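quick one before i forget lol
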Amino acid sequence: MILADPFPPSLPAPLEAVLTTRAPMDEDVGPVVELIQADQRRTDPEARVDPEGVRSRLVGLRSWSRRQLVVVPREPVSATPEVVPVGWICVEDRAAGRSNVQWSVAEHVPHRTELIACLLAWAAEVGGSFARHRGLETTQLNVSVDSRDKESRTQLAAAGYGRSRSWLHMERPVAPQEATSTPAPRDGVRVRTVHRHESGLPVAQDVRTVHRMLEESFADHFNSYRESFAEFVQRLTEVPGARWDHWWIAEVQQPDGTWWPGGGLVADVMPATARAGEGTYLEYLGVHRSARGLGIAKALLHAAIRDAAQRGRVRVGLEVDADSPTGADGLYRSLGWETTEVTESWHARTEARPSYLLRDEE
């Protein structure tokens, strides 16, 4: 089969006769969206999955930095000729030394626990191949799970993962009057959106500035992995409809009157749900180490709140390390954010794996 993985996972004997794996296809996008959404709704009944985001990861530009499989029946289980995926796993080559893992398997699949264990073992093989290609001895496998998801936590522990960190997902309401009432930055600090060309694309210098702010801001933070500018740009351009008008740069005035970058903020749209209207989500906020203590974080946060109010949005969300040495969660609480849910990072290490194609020569 052209779409069969050259080195697929070994399925447990009871399932091998009825299930197989292959590379994802366009027609798998809808079923995989349903799989992911059903998985998330086990802990969050209002969870919504963006089909275009899944499409990009599954068969679009974002698929190029990932190895993925869908699990499908060997034969149609009904008169309907289509073979609908009952499982999916994805391993992302996120950065040097880090591979992200995500999976979803339908509840009705028999021997589901054994199947997931096989998929996680395959993910470790893939992570090892990523390490080999990057010239590393090992890589970290990273999985994010909802703290209420006892099943996934049990499966990860059985696969050799350990819980490493907790992350607070926080939201604050936005009032219409905040379009004009948010405090201005301190003297000597200013915040602006990235400059853009007439085409709407950002000026390259500003994109590089944001990358530098984020990389150098988080270098001393937990689980920081260096992401090259090329990788950063690729990841951004892979996202359908990137919102360049949601990017801000904070600048600090120098003694000679010039303005130097001191922080960056990248945000996106939070779709409305049955519980709340549309909002702004703060994906990355970094204050450069050279500019800490100058009110940069507050200035960036106020800029995002002001922008959300001007757009008629009703909330602003973000994620923060529950054990951050900077005490960022305290700053967010002081500005009105409250925790809505908690996720956990689970990590395992896998060694670089030699190429299957060269093993006969070793």
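fyi The mean pLDDT is 90.
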